[in-house]
Amino acid sequence: MPTERKRRPTGAPRKRAPRVASAPPPLLEIIVTALADGLAEDIARIDLAGKTGIADFMVIASGRSARQVAALADRVLAALGERGRKRAPVEGLKAGDWVLIDAGDVIVHIFRPEVRARYNLEKMWGASFGEESGGETA
Q: Which one of 31, 52, 129, 132 counts the least CB within 10 Å of its CB?
């Protein structure tokens, strides 16, 4: 007799398996490396485990100008494309003040410094600014 599987109701959120603390996933490292190679400033990684189900990590970085913010976003998108993630949703690329890239398990925010200071996502998500930040790979 085959066993019946319980089906999740339509529209019900999927439950994520608890993540065990270990080495950062390759996707996170790809993103951080792309930002560091593009000379992003104050790269911060925030582990979202236990805080939200939208992603596993958040990466926040700064570019000195709208042009650099857009260039950093393009660099991250190119790095994702090289690894088979061709269609990551992006917001804010044209304005260049704040670009958001949804890379699935990693959410990327790239800001101009004054915009980053205004929104202060590090404080909102419980990471102290500078805790895991630096001009190079965080």
A: 52
Structural domain of 56: 26-124
Q: Which pLDDT tens digit goes with each residue over 63-121?
A: 999 999 999 999 999 999 888 777 888 988 888 889 999 988 899 999 999 999 998 88
The enclosing domain of 46 has a CATH number of 3.30.460.10
Asked whether residue 90 is assigned to any structural domain, the reply reads: yes
State the Cα torsion 36-40-42-44 to the nearest 10°.
-60
Q: Does residue 94 contact residue 18 with C-beta atoms inside 8 Å?
A: no
Residue type at 123 in one-letter notation: K
What does pTM read for this prediction? 0.73
11 φψ region: left (φ > 0), alpha (ψ -120 to 50), beta (else): left
- Say if residues 35 and 59 touch (Cβ distance below 8 Å): yes
